[in-house]
Amino acid sequence: MNIKAIGTAVVITSEITKEQIQQAKNFLPEALYLMDENKVPSFVIDVASKGSISKFGINFDSFDENEKAQVTLPMPKSSVAKRKVYIKEQYGMALVNLKKLETQVVSKLASVQGTIDSALEGMEVS
Q1: Tens of pLDDT along 4-44?
Q2: Which of 34, 74, 79, 124 has its CA 20 to 30 A from that of 87?
Q3: Which of 83, 107, 105, 108 is closest to 14 using CA atoms?
Q4: How many other CB atoms are there within 10 angstroms of residue 112's CB atom?
Q5: Model-level pTM greater than 0.90?
C-alpha cells in the first residue's frame, strides 16, 4: 500500500490490482471481506464510481498506471505534520484492515487459481 498526501488530497494506492479484484469477485468473493469473530463481514473492499473509506470498508474509484486500485480523498489544508495526524486519525484502522485484505486476497487467489489450474490440466481445446 502506498499513501500520498498532496495538498488537500490523500491518494491511497493498494497492492491489489484490478484483475485481482475481478478474479476474487468471480471465483472467491469472500476473499474481499474481513470477518469478525462471529463470521460476519466487518470490512470489505470494492470498486465504485465514488471513492470512500470508513471503518467498514474501502471503495476504490480508480486504478494507477500499473492497474493497482486507488482512491483519492479530500483532506483539510494544513501543515505536513498535521496531515499525517489527520490520516492516522481518520483512516488508521481502515488502512490496517486494507493491509490485512491485501495479503488475504493474494493468498486466497493463489490457492484457488492453483485448484482451477489443476482441475483444467487435461483440458483439450480445439
Answers
A1: 999 899 999 999 999 999 999 998 999 999 999 999 999 99
A2: 34
A3: 105
A4: 16
A5: no
